[in-house]
Amino acid sequence: MDSQLSPIANSSVSSAVIDQLARTKGWTRFMSVLLWIGAAFLIFGGIAMIAFGGILGMESGENSKMLAGMGMGLLMGIRLHRAFADLCLSRSQVG
Q1: 51 vs 41: CA distance, rounded Å
Q2: Which spans in the chain are helix H?
Q3: Each residue's pLDDT tens digit, 64-90
Q4: 24 exposed, middle or buried (CB, 10 Å; 0-12, 13-18, 19+)?
Q5: CA–CA distances in Å: residue 1 to residues 4, 38, 42, 90
Q6: Beta-carbon contacts of residue 53 (< 8 Å; ≥ 6 apart)
Q7: How deeply is 1 buried, as exposed, middle or buried, from its count of CB atoms within 10 A (0-12, 13-18, 19+)?
Q8: The dihedral of CA 84, 88, 94, 95: what is its sign?
Q9: Gap between the Cα atoms of 73 and 71, Å rounded
Q10: Residue 61 pLDDT more than 70?
Q11: More confidently predicted of 54 and 83
Q12: What's the maximum distance between 2 C-alpha atoms anywhere in the chain?
């Protein structure tokens, strides 16, 4: 991190703060699992909408819009996951 961007970049983090953050590991993993379950439900819901939309006779243009929306959501989820993983790695290297 550039020291000009943050005035506290050169200061050290106390062990009490590190300990408190370490205690949140269980909750963050729990929330991560819940979010992945929610993402799976969204994907299955999108697939079901495409399948039932085809059965009910939706126009093909609407299906392609739905697929594009699902793809954008999936790409955003992957990008967010990578950003969070990078953040966790950078935090673990601090302590």
Answers
A1: 15
A2: 15-23, 25-55, 60-94
A3: 777 777 788 888 888 888 888 777 777
A4: exposed
A5: 9, 33, 36, 10
A6: 62, 63, 66
A7: exposed
A8: positive
A9: 5
A10: no
A11: 83
A12: 63
Instruction: Say how far apart CA 23 and CA 74 lie, in whole Å.
Output: 30
**Per-residue tokens: 88:** 């966790």
Residue range 42-69: average pLDDT?
Answer: 71
- Residue for token pair 């439900």: 41
Q: What is the mean pLDDT of residues 4-21?
A: 69
Q: What is the model's pTM?
A: 0.42
In the chain, the percentage of residues whose pLDDT exceeds 90 is 0
Structure-token pair, residue 57: 């006779």
As given in the structure block, the two tokens for residue 29 are 């993993």
Between CA 82 and CA 33 the distance in angstroms is 15
